[in-house]
Amino acid sequence: xxxxxxxxxxxxxxxxxxxxxxxxxxxxxxxxxxxxxxxxxxxxxxxxxxxxxxxxxxxxxxxxxxxxxxxxxxxxxxxxxxxxxxxxxxxxxxxxxxxxxxxxxxxxxxxxxxxxxxxxxxxxxxxxxxxxxxxxxxxxxxxxxxxxxxxxxxxxxxxxxxxxxxxxxxxxxxxxxxxxxxxxxxxxxxxxxxxxxxxxxxxxxxxxxxxxxxxxxxxxxxxxxxxxxxxxxxxxxxxxxxxxxxxxxxxxxxxxxxxxxxxxxxxxxxxxxxxxxxxxxxxxxxxxxxxxxxxxxx
Length: 298
Fold this sequence. Notes:
Layout: E1 2-8, H1 14-27, E2 34-40, H2 45-48, E3 56-59, H3 70-77, H4 87-94, H5 96-105, E4 113-116, H6 124-130, E5 134-138, E6 148-150, H7 156-163, E7 170-174, E8 179-186, E9 189-190, E10 193-198, H8 205-209, E11 214-219, H9 223-239, E12 245-253, E13 256-263, H10 273-279, H11 285-297
Parallel strand pairs: 1-2, 1-3
Antiparallel strand pairs: 4-7, 5-6, 5-7, 8-9, 8-10, 8-12, 10-11, 12-13
């Protein structure tokens, strides 16, 4: 089977994508696959660099034109199978505003929020009802790029302006204090929970990717709490029509898990969150990549 590892892309997460892609490329089993790299520098590359002799596209893209369903739709039109969720799931999860509406409709706790596409349309009364601090971030983005922890009304406009340089909409979200956790789901099975303890004020870009930026480890929580996390993870898998794998980020406050977002193409280096979770069940990185391919094809 000829597997093309698709990496790079046009989003603000390009560097993260290249790191993921190179790790995937290095760790795919050469006894099973003929592996090639495809680095996307612009959207047209999908049509010229992903050739018709490719049997499977392993997507190591993040953010815009990676996780938003567009490249998935193009690959389907080219009849090339690919890793991870389909176009609909990808688009729903990428749009945090839409995803949170679905979570709320499904009675899954998530922090109150509003969105705006202009500094002239900021609803300060609504933000005041949340109380400060708040998070202001791109509605369709990841890796905590252009994410601001805003502590006063005076900081709101400037933060929204900066976010709108990256995205069409800025999300303003109530701050929920608590511990940060992530739940990995592979083919509908919930794997061990990972605890994230940032050395910064919150789990920002530097914490995620700098050496010693955060302590990330498998945890075994009190039984009732773990059952809540697992149930929420299974529900998210179902209501967003996920396929192959997904990562669900949460904050636990007063014993209640609040879902932050779903990542349909989470980071895939050996030290990323989902390989840590898989390793706790005896699944090494190369075997995890095999499983992602297997479940994506099934």
